[in-house]
Write a structure and sequence with these properties.
- It is a single chain.
- The chain is an alpha+beta fold and 152 residues long.
- It has one domain.
- The protein contains 3 helices and 8 strands, in the order E-E-E-E-H-E-H-E-E-H-E.
- It has a 6-stranded antiparallel sheet with strand order 6-7-4-1-5-8. A two-stranded antiparallel ribbon has the order 2-3.
- Strand 6 and strand 7 form a beta hairpin.
- The longest helix has 10 residues.
- It is globular.
Length: 152
């Protein structure tokens, strides 16, 4: 769905809702200092500045565990699942909308258009593992300072 189709206020998601993001192996970057794979800055980036997520309130209403987001993917292939809140996304200037699909009624999108690399790193820093791939760092992110710069 395009941003223009999301003007209805009912599509906006409350700040306290948890959002779940699938993490493909290509978004994990080796951190030599920590000796494990951390989230890369592209974790919250998809085509057209719209990042696909699953919305926790919808999953809860349906009695579906968040891990269901990985059903079509094999965790044996290194896929992971992280969570943040809508408030975390809004804090860096992103907007979260409901975008139900026929195959996934709990689908949402995070609009990340115009966000800086530092903002993407902040989203990674706020992330927590729901499904942690083998060899992934815990916590999954690199530490950043208040300006969004990585802390060695």
């Amino acid at each position: 769905m395009s941003v223009s189709g999301l003007c209805d206020d009912s599509a906006v998601v409350a700040d306290d809702v948890t959002i779940y993001r699938r993490v493909p192996p290509k978004n994990l970057k080796y951190d030599a200092r920590r000796g494990c794979n951390r989230l890369g800055s592209a974790t919250y980036t998809d085509a057209d500045d719209e990042t696909s997520v699953d919305l926790g309130d919808c999953l809860d209403d349906r009695g579906v565990p968040p891990e269901s987001a990985l059903l079509e993917f094999s965790t044996d292939e290194g896929w992971g699942l992280v969570e943040i809140t809508v408030a975390d996304a809004k804090a860096v200037g992103a907007t979260v909308y409901r975008d139900p699909l026929d195959e996934n009624q709990c689908h949402g999108i995070v609009i990340v258009e115009g966000l800086t690399r530092a903002s993407h790193l902040t989203l990674c820093a706020k992330s927590r593992w729901v499904v942690q791939p083998e060899g992934a760092c815990d916590p999954p992110h690199i530490r950043i300072d208040r300006y969004g710069h990585p802390i060695p």
